[in-house]
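Assess this one:

_____
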Amino acid sequence: MKIQIPYQISSPTDVERHEILRFFLKTDNREEDFDEIIKLLSPPQDIEKIASKEQGKKFKIAIIGAGLSGLCAAYELNKIGCDITIFEASNKIGGRVKTHFFDKSKNQYGELGPMRIPPSHETTWHYINEFKLKTIPFISRSISSLYYIRNAYAANNQHSIMENIYPQFDLPEREKKQTSNELIGRLYKKYFNKLSKEERKELLEIKKDYSKKIKEIQGISLRQGYENAGLSQNAISLISNISPLEGDLIHISLIEILAEYYTLDFLYTYTIEGGIINLPLAFYNQLINSKGPGKVNFRLGNLVNSIIQSPYDSHKIVLEVIDLNDNSYFYMDFDFVICAVPFSSLRRIKINPPFTVRKMQAINELNYEIGQKTFLYLKERFWEKDKNNPLSGTTLTDLITILTVYPSDHLVPVKGELFKYNLKENTSYKEPGTLLASYNWNQNAVRLGREYENLRIKEIIKCIEKIHKLPEGYIDDNLIDYTSILWSEVPFIWGGVCFMLPNQKELFLYDSTTPEMNGRVHFAGEHVSTKHGWMQGALQSGALVANNIAKLIKEL
């Protein structure tokens, strides 16, 4: 019996989202994972069932960082009446959420931070639904994608890739006969497919100890995984070029890749209409308009310089804060502190007395990958000139730009077809559009992102023109504006996202989540979750920390 292909509708209900997830799990022959995935990614218990407002209003809580995890923790703790002070060193909320608007009407924008939401990310959808935000399809994968690798072009189908890209890599005879899906599939057959249902759950669990197979997986890199699956180095090089961003991240722990595969994060995806920034703004608006009984105070431009266990009361935490608006110092004491900043930022905060040895080791060593994005705002959308076959999804290249992502706003899914999209009626390629011209990680991000701005933009423009066979000067003639980000150079973040290296999950993840200083200092953020680089990880960790503090409040 043929499985009906789900239609990717805007603002899907929970039922419609779940149908999408079930469909892709069925096609992967593991529908049995559905209930566990939903359970593992759902928000925790309602905080108001743990503690009442009468119990929370006596407690002062500091939250360091106004990113999604900090905002989420504040929002939840506000429900039980805690007095909350949110310290944010920058003058903006949202952390890595950064929507750049190119026009005054805010119709044209680029997401310099997170940009997509998989159907399985239950906690993210919980808050989207709670704040009544609208969502639209974000095209991550499309049959109209393009490859330009080693001066060869290919369409996004196995025949084209094998005919045009394979000859550039001098593959052994046995690998020439296998499709790229079959080559990549050897990795999943060796590692993922041999996991039991219970072992697959561990990909999304934070535990003191893991099963033997999970320990093995988290201890090897993605490259080692391909090698152990019997792939030649030339085949690994091929895959690194045709699989999104794997070449930039081939050194990270294999468990990071399998955790995303488990929840099918890159098939159908969504984004928030009007910009991802609307999610942190929804939290912010709820908090500043809170009716209490607890107070909520945002202190923007306030940098936490030290976290100190009070010498007079071991259950109090003192923060030394620099007000960057006038460079003055002040001290405030709290009952609980939530560190909702990346470890790359927490590293520069003085801790007295130091946290446990393993926690300090995690803060010092946890791996953060550097990300770079550059958007071009153009007078016309050259990628939509062919009405019958507009480019959509992504283009992959071995040029320094690596990944180009086409906007989804003019496209509509085709019913009954997977990853196929047509242009909406009454749209024109003559309309302005934003193109994510370059998206890369690690060394490629640094090499491109640290070029002089004029050289970087020129190089990106040349790459885009070459890949798309545009006449020289076309982009310059159509360029209205551009914007770039290199996340390692963003003050108070100083990194992209956490992607663990081999063995770091077993070494650091559990200890990264445990409270310090007599249970009064807690930790939240995507880095202390199993969904690294996703809003899901930040939000779920923020809600969990809020609940953990609520449980302690109830006992006091």
